[in-house]
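Worked problem 6 (solution included).
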Amino acid sequence: MFGGGSGGGSVYWGRKGGEFKGIVVLFAWISIPRNHLKSYVDLYSSLGWNSLVSHADFLSAFYPEKALSLAYILLNELFEELRIRPCPIVFVAFSGGPKACMYKVFQIIQGTCGGHINLDENRLLRNCVSGHIYDSSPLDFTSDLGAQFALPPAIQKMPGPSKLVSWFAKGVTSALDGLYLTRFDSQRAEYWQTLYSSVDFGAPYLVLFSETDHLAPYRSIYRFAQRLQDLGGDVKLVKWNVSPHIGHYKHYPIQYRAAVTNLLEKAASVYSRRIQQLRAGNGLDGMHDEISELICNLQKAAVYSNQSLRRVAVEPGDHFFVPTSTEYHNNRESEPLQDGRKVTTIYLPPSPSINANSVLGQLLFDVCVPKNVEGWDIRFSGSLNGHPIASARMHSPVKGIKCIRRSRL
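Solution. The predicted structure is:
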């Protein structure tokens, strides 16, 4: 047991260990005794699911601070298990369980309450939430409902219209009116809105209710399910004509088990499909990053090559000095490279050459190189990198020889 006392209730594992398909988190209230709750633990265990139980105190449904404290205890324990082995999670709410703890769990995961968990834990929990089951739930909390639950079961079962029972009930109701009305009016809208926002988890719903449940009226339950459907939720309703509050499994075990089994199978399918999508998304993101990096490198190479061709250095080795991107943008004109400036060197492969001793080389040599250079005027017209450049011009062309102006082969 991981919580109790001032924490608003207790959190414990109903079943843990062995081979399992997922984890069901049971949210129970004081309205369901622990020995009754064990039958549900056994049901989910027989279907191959481990169970984590939140059994809230009576006042946790009326004091959000107690519900929040219990929610943190539950999430910490759940995260420790998921960190070892991620798996599908199904939230199962009984009676007042959503108000006593579950809606605070939703708020923590969604980051809409004062407390918060780190981003990795939040992402892990959201990816694992795969289903919701409501059994005789959710309840619409009012002062009248609080008075009904405040009466001990022994007094409720007393035969006859005892004056003592009547006076006791009226006294409890009057006391709860003063306590609950002011608080419920401010909490009620937040409570229902949080339950509706669970549609964002993208998980299917199973709602189990009865027409004769006076604590969870079927009209209220039906409106809740209809609202979830309007918001895009996948909702399945199972209604019995005659069944008491939290007594559906006891009176209709075969139908109850079949409905729960179907929901758990659907939850496992949702989880599996979600994990496949996440893996595919990560793969595409990685491929997109590689393609983007490749395109970026090609663009940079094109820019650098364009600049390099304008800055050919006539030095031994036949290589280019390529400016960095900062140098390129800040200095578009060619400037001498200063000592210590970092440059990138791209070595070019040697250009194709012609062997001078070959027949083609000898022929070109005889045609292009004059045998008599007398009368040529050789002058130095400039320098490149400190070396003089010579130019030649004939005073008078030799008759019979056609001059070829191109000096590069």
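Discussion: The chain has three domains: 5-283, 312-351, 361-409.
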